[in-house]
Amino acid sequence: MQLESMYQDIILDHYRHPHHKGLREPFDTQVHHVNPTCGDEVTLRVTLKDADGQPAVADVSYDALGCSISQASVSVLTDLLIGRTVGEAMEVCAAFTGLMHARDAAEPDEDVLGDAVVFAGVAKYPARIKCALLGWMAWKDATARALAEPKEEPR
Amino acid sequence: MTFDVGRIRKDFPILERTVRGGRPLVYLDSANTSQKPRQVIDALTDFYERHNANIHRATHELGEEATEAYEGARIKVARFIGTADETEVVFTKNVSEAINLVAYSIGNATAAGGPARLALRPGDEIVITEMEHHSNIVPWQLLCQRTGARLRWFGVTPDGRLDLAGAAGLINERTRLVALAHQSNVLGTINPVEEIAARAHEAGALVLVDAAQSVPHGLMDVGSLGADFVGFTGHKMCGPTGIGVLWARRELLDEMPPFLGGGEMIEMVWMDHSTYASPPHKFEAGTMPIAQAVGLGAAVDYLTDLDLDGVRAHEDDLLRRALAALAQIDGLRVLGPAEPADRGGAISFVLDGIHPHDVSQVLDDRGVAVRAGHHCAWPLHRALGAQSSTRASFYLYNTPDEVDALADGIRATQKFFGVE
């Protein structure tokens, strides 16, 4: 079986017991992304805060319908990104996107990606890459919008 | 000649290959696209190696041969669907284009103020069904947006049939066109087209049938179906991709304005206007998929040479076996009719606690190819309360052992995800 290369235990754990799931208040922006080929959906909210003059990720909350890969991926995302500065979080997001598009056997950087390195096996299945990226693309979109439309009241 | 699936399988080279590290291919995705027999592959090669030229415009020998092969394919298709008039067969690239051809022609008639049978007026209604493929929904939404016509639809019952009882008055004097699937690509349901067409015609409406899933099984006689338009595609019936068919009654094709303009669809062209060729050429602008049409002709020959009653009996056996096997699996719900009556060989199902993408991934690891998602029928899934589904679909080359491989694979999936 090659399946275990994709369905690592960490992925199945996140799928069965997702972290930070549910839509929370308050939030800065909310986006709804779908994967039109399979109908998977995620509604994702981002709340930013100020961390020593830099924007940072205060919270990421979400509600999602979809397969184990898309569910586990957004769960891992919240663990990795909440609390980081937006700059750091964008680097993690870029590394994850790179991991998904790298078909070669380049070793993923565990220092940057943490638990997300277990998604390396997904990159071998082109049809599932969009599943893994769904939440990350939603987060990136929501964060870009939050940065473009700063809150009116001072934080 | 009795039907021998072992002999059939030898005609399909791809069925000999292995997948995912040496597992035999169990191809249960024919409603998506069918595999191709050697005869069709050879016809494509032979055309390109021996007869390739453009059609209807080359005066050399190759041009004559290519034209004869292309027009010969049209005659074969016409006979296969039960019409003696091959000018009623318009080649398109697929069913989507066939349906869009009708929708855009009606839109063009509306913009030009006629002919009356086609032109829509605000308040006119187009009726579709909730079980349609997106290709028989979106073109009508677009037409309604362009013309001010109103889109209405038949709902589906929980067991996956058209809700005819709940649709009193749906087809009425405002109805101008009824468009529906002959056989649902998700549920397998075979719809009572004759009955609905009769009702539509009484109301003065035209009827379009999406027959993508029925023609491959030899289930088409345009004479008795009662439709005015029938669309289907080559690649689901052993033919190549890139070639589809719109059949329409000749008098309608005569009245219909063109859809795509361009070379070969004209009679005369001036700088400010043109006149058009006779059907079917009026609707075949530009260089057509010639080799693909020839390949479709070969596919029709292949199917015609088989004992089609034997094929249907074989496919029916597979369907019964699959419905019985799936009914034994706890936590599995079949979308659509649980009984084989008026039902074709596509079975979509949902498994408690496991997403269809994950089901198809485990099946794929065992060599079993199915489709996961909404199968281009999102409104239908919404109506049945399913986010998406896994679909297994059977064709003439599938075997009882492959049905068992599906059932075994589903159980293995439940085990893998700890849902038992």
Describe this structure as you would to a colleague.
The complex is a heterodimer of chains A (155) and B (420). Chain A is α+β, with helices and mostly antiparallel strands and 155 residues long. Chain A has one domain (3-147): Sufe protein. Chain: A, CATH 3.90.1010.10. Chain A has 6 helices and 3 strands. Chain A starts with a helix and ends in a 7-residue tail after the last helix. The mean pLDDT of chain A is 90. Chain B is an alpha/beta fold and 420 residues long. Helix content of chain B is 37%, strand content 16%. Chain B contains 13 helices and 17 strands. Chain B has helices spanning 5-10, 38-51, 61-80, 95-112, 138-147, 193-202, 222-225, 250-255, 290-305, 308-327, 356-365, 378-383, 400-416, and strands spanning 18-19, 23-24, 26-27, 89-92, 125-129, 150-154, 175-181, 206-210, 229-233, 244-248, 266-269, 274-276, 332-335, 346-351, 368-369, 371-373, 389-393. In chain B, the strands form 5 sheets. A 7-stranded mixed sheet of chain B has the order 4-10-9-8-7-5-6, sandwiched between helices. In chain B, strands 13-14-17-16 form a 4-stranded antiparallel sheet, with helices on one face. In chain B, helix 6 links the parallel strand 7 (175-181) and strand 8 (206-210). In chain B, helix 3 packs across helix 9, helix 4 runs parallel beside helix 5 (138-147) and helix 10 runs parallel beside helix 13. The mean pLDDT of chain B is 96. The A-B interface holds A 1-3, 6-7, 12, 37-40, 65-69, 125, 128, 131 and B 20-21, 355-358, 361-362, 365, 372-374, 378, 381, 387-388, 416-417.
Q: Encode the helix/strand succession of chain B as letters.
A: HEEEHHEHEHEEHEHEEHEEHHEEHEEHEH
Low-confidence stretches of chain A: none
The second-level CATH architecture of the largest domain in chain B is 3-Layer(aba) Sandwich
Q: What is the structural class of chain B?
A: alpha/beta
Shape of chain B: globular
The number of helical segments of chain A is: 6
| Oligomeric state | heterodimer
Biggest sheet overview of chain B: 7 strands, mixed
Of all chain pairs, the largest interface belongs to: A-B, 18 and 18 residues
Q: What is the string of SSEs of chain A from the N terminus onward? A: HHEEEHHHH
CATH topology of chain A: Sufe protein. Chain: A
